Amino acid sequence: MSISDSKETTQRMAALHQKFAKIYGHQPEGIWRAPGRVNLIGEHTDYNMGFVLPFAIDKNALVAVRRKTQLDADRQTLDFASTYGSGEHPPITSITFDELVPRAVPGWAAYPAAVLWALNQLEGVELGGIQLLVDSDVPVGSGLSSSHALEVATIVALDDLYELGLSKVQMAQLTQRAENEFVGAPTGIMDQSASLMSHAQHALFLDCHSMETQAVPLPLAQHDAVVLVMDTRVEHSHVDGGYAARRASCEQAAAALEVQSLREVNAVAELEAIEDPVAKRRAMHIVTENRRVLDTVFALREGDLEAVGKLLYQSHESMRDDYEISSEELDVAVEAAMAAGAIGARMTGGGFGGSAIALIKREHIDKVSQAVREAFDQAGYVEPAIFTVIADEGAGKA
Ligand code: ADP
Ligand code: MG
Predict the structure, then answer these.
(1) Whose CA is nearest to atom 5 of ligand 1?
(2) Where are the alpha helices (DSSP H) in the chain?
(3) What is the pLDDT of residues 94-121, one digit of tens each?
(4) TM segments (predicted)?
(5) Spatial contact of 278 and 246, defined as CB atoms under 8 Å apart
(6) pTM, to two decimals
């Protein structure tokens, strides 16, 4: 069973309905759901037009929305509220359409506002005022893409309510535009695609150049295996420099090789033509990572989890040594998990903090979790949050 139809989600939906009515004095027109994601493998390859293999997880953002009517006094304003960290009385952030200016909306409301902004740019689309309340259990800033869960839940809701008829690819592209131009985070297209296009018990093999997808069955149950998330509780931030710097290095490497994107590079030997040693190492990660994604898809289809595990760990080494986006905490989590018998482990998401994942036998959940906790304790880090995730269905009406 996926979380989308679990008892817990039903309870959260009922509570969200009530809270919406209390805050806004009206019933919402509906509730929409969008999951966070784990990236199994294929890191920073999306903006290099390469391959990624994420899956949606059983943690999601729920948004309740109501379109305002003639009877609403302020029918042209956009009202946003979130249950996150706000106790019984979430404050409402109200903005007008005139205030929908890139990088001008402060705080978390920039994410749903960005989606409205992107939709409003579309020919023939005219949105009115709305009331929106979000309730998400995707941990914030942990590299599981809580920001995209919020954006995707918002776009799915608006697509439905305003009968826009957008395709999933269009919604992915619009939320990317929203995040890049309005919020100001130079992220790729993987996260929103994972949230929109994933299927339960499958990973999403996405070609970020053609936007073609394949649902790849995850043979975890057959092998009594699970994916464990180890959240370091060190928040990453994409709006800051590290991510943008990696993008710039990749562009530099592509320019040196006279290709449109590093996707076009198939053999590591071709990288010899890059003079700058940093750009060369960054490109090395991208080229080898694309290969590892293809190999992982093959190994999953063969049911060879040992091979998948090796690829996950190689991916981690590549991110640690060549792409340099890991952190001490992520390395400690990965090494402790491996030493305690994980089949494979790697940091996941943009890096510089956030979460690592481990592919482990179900019977090793306690052993691996304990080993990681102890390693963190010994290193003097804050206690990590450790939990298993299941591959869930992508976004839709809840
Ligand atoms: P990640 O997407 O990996 O969790 P980001 O830094 O990209 O980390 O996004 C986190 C931001 O998304 C938060 O700082 C907040 O602005 C917004 N956000 C995520 N979830 C919620 C929520 N439930 N309520 C309000 N804002 C949220
Ligand atoms: Mg994010």
Answers:
(1) 141
(2) 7-24, 110-120, 146-161, 168-177, 190-197, 241-256, 277-302, 305-321, 328-339, 365-379
(3) 999 999 999 999 999 999 999 999 999 9
(4) none
(5) no
(6) 0.96
